[in-house]
Here is the input.
Amino acid sequence: MTKEKDDQVAGKRVIRLGNVSQPTLTVYPAPPEKATGAAMIVCPGGGYHILAMDLEGTEVAEWLNSIGVTAVLVKYRVPARKGQERYLAPQQDAQRALSLTRQRAKEWGLNPQRIGIMGFSAGAHLSAVTSTRYDKRAYEPIDDADKESCRPDFTMLIYPAYLTVKTNGDKIAPELTITSNTPPTFLIQTQDDGVRVESSVFYYLALKNAKVPVEMHLYPSGGHGYGLRATEKAVTTWPQRAEQWLRGLGVLEKK
Here is the structure.
């Protein structure tokens, strides 16, 4: 947890979880009276070093439940493993989460064709990796769950990090292989984000050029790491934009 004197978000502290060696999934079912059969894999951020488990995890699950979406919160492995791409172990965990959720869809009252992924900052990069590298599993199959697809049906990237390479003219990061089959994508960022807004802009253009349905909202101010905590900044109304986008996809229609 951040200390009292540390930076706070909307006047509240943030739970920062480190040294995760055993990944876990926590399922937050949508309430029966609201359930749409949709699910979202949730990937908190933290620079592939820690996980902001409440700000970008449990609080996100509460919001998803409020709009009828079951949340599957992934506590993926951090910090990055030496000698590996920083996203590799988290990618394995996210792919496994998608396949397990599809395998359990009937048991959990879900539509296996309505399972998306969303992430914040590094978790958004992880969501982008998972959305562009689903054709090859990043680990050897373990059991029958791994026969299920690990491609998300839709993707939400909230103040994403690492999408482009600044030193190479903002080319899309090499691990992100965008094709026409990349899932429909929603992007949020601010102009004054410490992670350069160009990463979202160039990612948007790459998706557009691949004819992937993509919606992007850019705001002038608000910085980075606000999660869903409302302030006077307009960017913190993004959950309303996201809900509208999900409705437009048909994801929030009652099952």
